[in-house]
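pasting for the record
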Amino acid sequence: MPKRDEFSEKTKQLLARRAGFRYSICQCPTVGPHSEPGQSVYLGEACHICEAALNGPRPKQSLAPAERTAASNGIHLCKVHARLIDVHTAAYTAERLMEIKSSQEQRISTMVVGSGATSATYSYLVNSPLLAQIALCEAAK
């Protein structure tokens, strides 16, 4: 079985945060309440835009392992779309997935900081230490 280059937990969380904890294609929320009051449910999938392993969907053999596992090669999806993009590769090319990801991040940026926001403002908000700390606190619960 070929080796897959997997995303780190930090990268998975970054992809989810940059997508506003919404799936990038169907827009459904990726987090919600658990039946236990002190817990939450997280259902998002960090998916590779270009192949995670040699001979995978959307191959780009020039990518080094570090590039394959970088947030720039990932998109936040639901389980159904995660499978669909790997089965229906003609419709979901790497270029199309980058467009979907960019559109989702812009949509969330507009929701968070308004339509006049710069990418620098949004990047600061999404990557702020405070948001990272909140995510860690929630994960520890």
